[in-house]
Amino acid sequence: MAQSSSANLPTSANPTSSSDARATKAPRVGLFVTCLVDMFRPSVGFAALKLLEDAGCTVVVPAEQTCCGQPAFNSGDNKDARAVAAQVIEAFEGLDYVVAPSGSCAGMIREHYPELFADDPAMAQRAQHVAKRTYELTSFLVDVLGVTSVDAAMSGTITYHDSCSGLRELEVKTQPRRLLAGVKELTLTELPGAEVCCGFGGTFCVKYPEISDKMVTNKAEEIVATGADTLLAGDLGCLLNMAGKLKRLGAETKVRHVAEVLAGMTDTPAIGDPKAVGPKEER
Amino acid sequence: MQSTSRQFKDNAHRALNDATLQRALGNVKTGFQEKRAQVVSELPEFEALRDAGRDIKNHVLANLDFYLERFEENVTANGGHVHWCRTPAEARETILEICRRREAKTVTKGKSMVAEEIGLNDYLEEHGVEPIETDLGEYIIQLRHEPPSHIIAPAIHVTREQIAEDFRRHHTDLDPNRRLEEPRDFTDEARAKLRERYFAADVGITGANFLIAETGSTVIVTNEGNGDMTQLLGKAHVVVASLEKIVPTLEDASTILRLLARSATGQEMSVYTSFSTGPKRDADMDGPEEFHVVLLDNGRSAMLGTEFQDMLRCIRCAACMNHCPVYAAVGGHAYGWVYPGPMGSVLTPSLIGVEEAGHLPNASTFCGRCESVCPMRIPLPKMMRHYRQREFEKGLSPQKARAGLSVWSYFATRPSLYRLATRVATGLLGRMGRGKGRFSSLPLAGGWTSVRDMPAPEGRTFHDLYKERAAAGTRS
């Protein structure tokens, strides 16, 4: 995968560990939290933060971020999509990189922001500048930082769903698997049809619930058939969809974002599971 | 063909609840996806061929008038005729006129999606000419009075049991207890039935996969040989083709042929690749006495120079629908017009209007699998999104969705207000859902919770927690 110019990156031939990165000036990475992580699962945001800091980045979380604009863009509302995109560009353009724990949002910024401003050369240039520096989390860790292992353990068997935008717009496929291979006590059982859409599709899942249902039912059945005790993926939209269906079907499979496992932050309840009661409960 | 694309949701509902159809659709995966993947993996230059195919078609579309006129000159020089038809009506009338001149009672037909597009069969029948479909799949659906549900496997929605029933019902002269189980049984029976019709037919009508400008030839690819019988045995051969089928040279056709069967059926080449160049010459043993090309526009030239021009690169291989999870769920008839699947979701609104076919470009998750297998690298999701833009601009998108979007964008462009709103919503949902961790129903989220649970939020927003931690960090 093409790497953007990396002026602030360690230029050593093989920057495999975070200490190398710290030896030179740490890259300033803007964490694009994503609206779903912000609202539904802040743990994923903190997991991403930990992974980036462990890899030697200085992580900044710009306050002026809300959403990437995809709901408007994919509904044909380019005016509102541009307004939201301009806000993201403004908030992140001063940083070395933009990293999102989502292939979908990173794909939006990287692939579609420049196209949104095609009629506005000045904005198009700024969009291009940000787009080139934007990565999905696991791809950034592996392809840009050269991270080869993480310090995490989780006992059990997982299976992995490749979310569409990450896979096809950003070529995220081997990166999460490479990192997961380093998680102690973990076994990966590949999911047949891992590259087939789960039926989320943003507003698609509520505009065409019956078709979405058929797709996510197929997916849930394939997940259960792997016998894995946990399903992982890199996009919270897909995860909420698949977790919701697995729960509706009464399946036992736990569902988590890949970042949680890579960061070793799996003591929180899995997606769609009740909060643990008792002394551990916060506040 | 009358469109039912407006009723896409109802069509989809019926399809999803049709157990027989769902069983039939199960064949798409093994039948097409795996074979394509296998044959593509065996050809190292496949990706380079895709680039070459795209470039040939782009060049043609930039010089369409030149190549079409060149094609006409060469068809004429070979003793054939080109009929330029703007509309389906013009094309139908032209074909009927040829049939009438030959006093045709029956015509045999090779498989043609353009013939479906212009509603040729019904029209001929209404005017006393009997059309006989000779492609096995088309023959089956003609018996069933159904339109095709797939552009290369028109009867993919029909199970073997259904075909056996149809054959017993129509071929009443045959032994009622004969074996009708395997594809071979159906092929043999249809072949025997069709043989007599080929010899009796006055006119043979085929489509074209390519029109070759430098030679004035038309090309069809088939696996059953029915196309050859159709175009050689009739006294007149009528080719009905849309104008974007043109390629400059034989060499260009060969390049795209290497992509076509691999992308379509996972074959290296189709069993028959047949070139037709003009009518029978004096020294030829056989062949048609007349050769006509009915060239249909039907809105395609209006796509040139628009954001939908790339769609005209399509070579009708069906890879997009073979890999589309929405097509796999609802089948081809749900799309409501001639062309189903992702290519149909772009072509249908282009040809019959986005007002009529507005659902189609919306019924996609933008998973991008169609584009990833398209041999012509057509950016299908991007063009579907362009249609969504047109719908939004024309005020055609549903009022509820528009209202939702304007509320969302009001908040999304005001981060402080957004923080406040998400804090309240997340807190509320988090508290409501903490017991079970999920909701089985939620007000205003019926589209979601009608089919799956909604996982509950953890309870606080990332931004609130982050601010708190940052503040704690500075204090310590």
Report on the architecture of this protein:
The complex is a heterodimer of chains A (283) and B (476). Chain A has 283 residues and is α/β, with parallel strands linked by helices. Chain A has 2 domains: 26-144, 3-Layer(aba) Sandwich (Rossmann fold), CATH 3.40.50; 153-262, 3-Layer(aba) Sandwich (Rossmann fold), CATH 3.40.50. Chain A is 47% helix and 12% strand. Chain A has helices at residues 18-23, 35-40, 42-54, 70-73, 78-92, 103-116, 121-132, 137-144, 164-170, 174-180, 204-207, 209-226, 236-248, 258-262, and strands at 28-31, 58-60, 97-100, 134-136, 153-160, 184-188, 230-233, 254-257. In chain A, helix 8 (137-144) crosses helix 10. Chain A is globular and about 50 Å long. Chain A starts with 17 loop residues before the first helix and ends in a 21-residue tail after the last helix. Chain B has 476 residues and is of the alpha/beta class. Chain B folds into 3 domains: 1-17 and 320-397, no CATH class; 43-302, 3-Layer(aba) Sandwich (Rossmann fold), CATH 3.40.50; 401-475, no CATH class. Chain B contains 24 helices and 12 strands. Chain B has helices at 8-16, 19-25, 27-41, 46-62, 64-77, 88-101, 113-117, 120-126, 136-143, 160-170, 183-200, 226-233, 250-264, 319-322, 325-330, 341-352, 354-357, 359-362, 369-373, 380-393, 399-412, 415-433, 446-449, 462-475, and strands at 81-85, 106-109, 130-133, 203-206, 210-212, 217-222, 236-242, 246-247, 272-276, 290-296, 438-439, 454-455. In chain B, strands 1-10-7-4-2-3 form a 6-stranded parallel β-sheet, sandwiched between helices. In chain B, strand 5 and strand 6 form a beta hairpin. In chain B, helix 4 (46-62) packs across helix 13 (250-264) and helix 16 runs parallel beside helix 20 (380-393). The longest helix of chain B is centred in the C-terminal third of the chain and has 19 residues, at 415-433. The mean pLDDT of chain B is 96. The chains are: A alpha/beta (283), B alpha/beta (476).
